[in-house]
Target: Transposase, IS4 family protein
Amino acid sequence: MQVVASAGCDRYVKKLKTLKLLYLMLIAQFLGLDSLRDIATRLTCDKQLQKLLHLTSISASTLSRRLRNIDHRVWEQLFAEVKRQIWQQANKTGAVRQYQLNVIDSSTITLCLRKYLWADYRKTKSGIKLHQRITIHGGNSYPDSAVLTSARKADKTVMDELVVTSPDALNVFDRGYVDYAKWDDYCRKGIRFVSRLKSNAIIDVLEEKSVETNQVLAEKIVRLGNAYTTQMTHPVRLIETRDNQGNAVIIVTNELTLPAAEISDIYCMRWQIELFFKWIKQHLVVKEFFGTSQNAVYGQIWLALIGYCLLQNLQQELPKSVSLLEVLRAAQMFLYQAFNELIAALSRPPTKTNHGRQSLDAGYDQLIQIIDQLGTDWLDIVDEGMYL
Model:
């Protein structure tokens, strides 16, 4: 692979090449193996994995050394490549909006202070922060750009790295990204955004708008801030609405053409990124780390994102009724097993009449046909050279 070759990752490496390491790390992610010793044991006991990699054993110390020495930016570039392939497929389907909806947020992963002194956070603990942008397209959300920092880094300091500046983009974020000076700059440059406003914001109402739906409580044109702190020179649109629990929510945006109710719905879509973070933390290995160095920890986060994208790429080829968790479970059970074993598992007759199982079985025939076309080489999305 060109990324690996240009980085010189395999120079002087005889046994555990980078693509073999990538495959092992993906298996660790999918199976929830949270230590290098578990990965080494898996390889020693798994004859099929040995045959696939042409590798009979590897020590935990060798795995640690390889992960430590490979620059995490190599994994970041691989993530960008896999993400690009997902987008090529996603753009073939889905309803086309008049805007590209991008949701930006961050999630903190706490670490042991004694082991991770470099990850500055609090007096009693360390931590890192995953700053993520996802794009919502055709009712589905796809991971886009990401930035890794120490947990102490404020969200708004990485806005410029994640905000999409194209005219058709609409960026959505929460109160952690409130920055009047930055918002003024976005207004000057024509960068559209939707954000929730802090409760203590200083608001100068310039104009009251009529409200035409019960979903929206009020709509105003306002100027934020004051001369004693920071005041925006550009007026923005303020929309008052309520969340699902009935709590008041104040939204501001420099998008002036879309209906207020649609702006409210757009902000509600921000919840998709919370679901993304929840899925990553529950089903992939991002809370127990194989190494303690910054490079090793960041590399593992990028590997988890690569694994997520590979699962999502497979999901794109399957019926919509199949969830990402079901795809993960199928990968766990049939990652490199014979295809007829998958057919047998999916073709088992139900033990009792169950309307839910019957409706699911109706889609399994199509699922089997699609997976039959994919074969067992779905990980070739990264590179055919993986199968050495």
